[in-house]
Amino acid sequence: MTAALAAAAGAVGFSHSSLAAPTQANSAVNIAALSMGNGQLSELTTARIERRNLATRDSSRVELAVTQTNKKQAAADRTAKARAAKLDATRALTAKRASALAKAKAAIDLAQQKARESATRCEMVISDYRITATFGQGGGRWARNHTGTDFAADLGTPIRSVMKGEVVGAEFAGAYGRQVRVRHEDGTETWYNHMSKFSVSFGETVYAGDQVGAVGMTGNTTGPHLHFEVRPGGGEPINPMPWLRDHCGLNP
Fold this sequence. Notes:
The chain has 252 residues and is an alpha+beta fold. 44% of the residues lie in helices and 20% in strands. The protein has four helices and nine strands. The chain has helices at 3-11, 22-36, 39-116, 240-248, and strands at 130-133, 149-152, 158-160, 165-172, 178-184, 189-198, 205-206, 211-215, 225-231. Strands 1, 2, 3, 4, 5, 6, 7, 8 and 9 form a nine-stranded antiparallel β-sheet that branches. Helix 2 (22-36) packs across helix 3. The radius of gyration is 53 Å and the shape is rod-shaped.
């Protein structure tokens, strides 16, 4: 320390021994310089002070930037958590709805299956037809009075089982042509004749509305039609029309 500085330090009450620490010395120099009004020392001290102030401002800016960044990150985290929670809730609701729909569909399918497999359900044996011969009708085309009802329709028109039953015959039967016979649970047999093809085979279980064949012209026939017979207990035929109405609720 120069004599001038020492004197200045002394003037403000600092001894040489009390300025042993660098920080204390710097502070003393600053105070001394400000007290003396020395131009050279004032400029040096001012520069130091400005550097310290600048460093302080820079540090404050960094701290402020970090604080703002932290706030933004925290806000982003909250938004992300809220979105995730909303997405989880949506997924849970979707899963719940899907489960409910699956249960409802399963219930509907089960009800439809039970209805389909019901032994009492009936379906009309053919569609888009016209009746060309009735039960008991006489004529030269038959060896005796007509034993069933004839439903004329286009070749290939599907022929369906009227009720649930077991196929007890699927073969060519002389004047009947291609014939399918179905035995129902009460023992009644229904016969489907003159078909162009078989859609079932012996021993197969069919349900009401299942196709058993198609309209044809096989056997003793003058045109494409289904000759339909009803035989209670597999015995003699009865008039199919009252049976369809009374037993099945159908009105051909």
